[in-house]
Amino acid sequence: MKRSRLLPAVTWIYVVWSLLPVLIAIRFAFNEGRSRTTGQGFSLRWFWTDPTLSVRNDPTLASALEHSLVLAGLSMVIAVPLGTALALGLQRWRGRGSGVSNVLMLLPLVTPELVFAVGLFLLFTSAFGFIGLGTTAQVIGHVTFSLSWVVLIVRGRLVMIGRDVEEAAADLGAPPWHVLRRVLLPLLGPALAASLLTVFALSIDDFVVAQYMASGADTTTVPMRIYASARAAPTPALNALVTIMLVLSLAALALAWVLGRGRPVEPRA
Amino acid sequence: MNEPSGLSRRGLLASAGAVLAGASLTGCENTTTPVATAEGTGGPGIMGDETAGGPVDAAGIPLARRDYPVTLPRIGDPVKAGAPEKGGELQVYNYADYLNPEVIQAFGKQEGVSVRVTTFQSLDEAFTKLSTGRFQFDVVFTAPDHLPRLVGRRLVQPLNFDLIPNLVKETWPELHSPFYDVGPRYSVPYTLYTTGIGWRNDQIGALDPNALGWEAFWESQALRGKVAVLDDAREALGMALMRRGVSNLNTEDEAALKRASDDLVELNDITRVKVAINGYETLPAGRMTMNHVWSGDMLNAVISYLPEGTSGDVLSYWYQKVGGPVFNDCMCVGVEARKPVMAHRFLNFLLRPDVALTNFTGYVGYQPPITKIDAAALFEQQVLPANLRNCVVTREDYANGNAYLALTAEGRRRWDQAWGAFRNG
Amino acid sequence: MRRWALFAAPGMAWLAAFFLVAFYAVVAVGFGNVTDVYDPVPHWNPLEWNVGYMLQALEDIAPGGRTWPVFVRTLLYVAIAVALSLAIGYPVAYYVSRYAHGRMKALLLILLAAPFWISYLMRMFAWTNLLADGGYAATVLNALSLDALLLDGEDWLGGQHVAVVMGLVYGYVPYLILPLYASLDRIDERLIEAARDLGASSAGAFRRVVLPLSRAGTLGGIVLIALPMFGDYYTPDLMSGSPRTAMLGNTINNSVQGGPDKALGAALTLLLSAFLLVFMLYYLRELRRENAL
């Protein structure tokens, strides 16, 4: 059959095409020379040893990395609890307004990021001027577009868990607060881990909202740094920066995977 | 400009200052007329008399020209001389890469204060963010054509020149009371520049910007994809105006601006032109071959951005000797400065000859208007590459030069529309 | 139960404040005015709306207006990029869902999902390394004479339409493949076998069974990648940087972040949202169906 030869070929070519450029970019991070287009030996110069240009010693690179991580951390800490509560509420609440709320919760997912970023920018430079631009605005932006994802993930899990366990606990006389804390939240563990991971990934990846909410050099993130430098004449230190970023993302992924596997309770899954 | 001499008007202006300040603040918003553009063309003029004051900007402040000096209205009083504020951070608002970190450190050490620099990409962005009123910068870097808007919106404060003795002691006499800020009241000069063309000798081939001048951009088919004009409405359109021989860089003539915009659009086809302000990085790296640049960028390219193994000789610079843009940037103190005295000391520090020199040759590449710094000698001593000798601004250049200056509200709208027609594709 | 509404309250308040009000800020600025120094003055009260900027934006984007060429270019870029993404993505998704099994399938799925873990800007940056003069990709492509075929000149990053469209395809195709895969994977193998048993050729079975059944996933995937492409400005900036290849996102970005035309930029943002409304509603419906909300 002809297709069976052609299709795997297309698939593998695609996979190589989609990943090879990034691997090559990582390779250049270890260049000894300054070129980002040809391999020139191996060194850690751009990560560590170059006295002015390495990620360690160039304050603009190091601070971008730090700021990206700070934003991701704050976004996770705010978006996951907020989204989990929202998911619980929306899943169980069937009253007036719940339909509208469901739609509102999904809107950030379907709105182009630029439209959302322009809106927040105009808001923070006018009516919400007391918040203004800067780190706070960036975190608010990231939480807002992450929230819907957390809700979707947690609700998916809630549907899977069903209400049996909860009702059983209530029948045995557990007060509602206990049911929530001792029964529901532990069952939600994998979903919470997945949510944390997703928010981390969304925040780290985001460029548009971070750029619109930024107020200056100290609010520059890694993607913003890439945008600014890639158009000028970056050194392989920028490659080194993206390499570190990628390693951190993969580490987060691995961590979540390990934690997710370690979960003892897997009802009905 | 065929206005009556500035002198008599200066007295009038000073007395009108208070009125103007009031007018500018109440008259800032005009939302009554449902039109697509800002109202306020011409504004109230001096005390309501258009003919008495010449054209005014959106805030009602007269438009300064080289032959028409303007005293900016006084808003508030300068800070009293005294001991500098202790502790905390001095907040500085500036372009990126426009201040030598060593200089910042030295000031911090001398005064026992930590200096925090926040950066902006363009003066428009800086104005937008400053006018949200959330930033309390002590020192604000800007340019003379933006000064009136900063004053009109009460975003900077009058200076106490007793705290900045270096202005008179060390800077060029023509800048002691510049035409854009007679007195001066709000600003001290920072650096000088001309606007011109920078290129790579090793890549440009037969094209000769020295012979062609601005026309070189329209002759650069062979360099397609490697040519950029400045990402700056005034500079890029002004360049296209000069190409057509227009000498008034502050013209508000719609037809001339339309033609300038069309000429720039033509560059898309001729050379797939890019729009960028980072020639100081892309030219030395060889990613671009010919850029519309500021003179300081070329020196900055050699000082900070030459890759190993590339010599500064590969770079050249041309500027229009007569009637081309030659001007200076300036520094102010923010209206809500927490450390106004310290801010004055910072301004004075940057005008100290040794500090200014370190800042110039050690980092930014833009030359300060300091009398004791003999830029020509720096080329003799090979502190700077001889082939970029013409990146120095002489006092003669400054006297003959042209400048982009504040426009009327309507004029500004026309420039921005013409720019948008090119910039937005 | 009331109690559950209380759980939802903080999140809903957050979304109302930072999503709904934010969107309304675009409306208020787009239908607002500017000060004499071009600061936008939002008109929050609909009774005070000023239609001037909206009319200006409409005039600009209509045929013959100054934004019209950008609009047409954006439509073309997105249409071509989506078509190319489908041409690449569909066979890949089809193969992985139908023919890959066991460990191979798991490996392929991980590789297909990998780009999600690499920042978009990082992936674009990787291409700027490859397409720069002397870069690996530029060297290979030029050796194959593809520059002569596809480019005006030979500089891949010097304001070329092809480079921008390629950047868009590269950037967004992973987001198309996963929903496509999901919908193809759901198709019951027995349906195809039944079609073959009834005499359909392999191609016929594909056309009569697989294509119709994967239609929803395909449309969903297209919408999923077309929406962000319409708001993209960083891909043209990184892959070209010339006004020659500017997209609508660049126009909006330049107006809102750069220049003094914020009100006009807001009006244009509203027009773009209105234009994309059909896509957004379709996507919303799909999301509700998928998640049974």
From TrEMBL, chain A:
Keywords: Cell membrane, Membrane, Transmembrane, Transmembrane helix, Transport
Stretches assigned to the ABC transmembrane type-1 domain: 65-259
Membrane topology of the entry: Multi-pass membrane protein
Entry's transmembrane regions: 12-30, 69-90, 102-124, 130-154, 183-204, 237-259
Pfam families in alphabetical order: BPD_transp_1
Cellular localization per UniProt: Cell membrane
Superkingdom of origin organism: Bacteria
Family designation: Belongs to the binding-protein-dependent transport system permease family. CysTW subfamily.
Name by which UniProt lists this protein: ABC transporter permease subunit
Lineage of the organism: Bacteria, Bacillati, Actinomycetota, Thermoleophilia, Solirubrobacterales
UniProtKB/TrEMBL annotation, chain B:
Name of protein: Spermidine/putrescine ABC transporter substrate-binding protein
Pfam families: SBP_bac_8 (PF13416)
UniProt KW Transcription regulation keyword: no
Record key words, sorted: Periplasm, Signal, Transport
Subcellular compartments: Periplasm
Lineage top rank: taxon: Bacteria
Subcellular location, principal: periplasm
UniProtKB/TrEMBL annotation, chain C:
SUPFAM superfamilies in the record: MetI-like
Residues passing through the membrane, by range: 12-32, 75-94, 106-126, 162-184, 205-230, 263-284
Pfam families referenced in this protein's UniProt entry, alphabetically: BPD_transp_1
Keywords: Cell membrane, Membrane, Transmembrane, Transmembrane helix, Transport
Domain of life (superkingdom): Bacteria
Segments forming domain ABC transmembrane type-1: 71-283
Its membrane topology: Multi-pass membrane protein
Principal subcellular localization: membrane
Intracellular or extracellular location(s): Cell membrane
PANTHER family for the chain: INNER MEMBRANE ABC TRANSPORTER PERMEASE PROTEIN YDCU-RELATED, INNER MEMBRANE ABC TRANSPORTER PERMEASE PROTEIN YDCU-RELATED-RELATED
Family to which this protein belongs: Belongs to the binding-protein-dependent transport system permease family. CysTW subfamily.
Protein name: ABC transporter permease
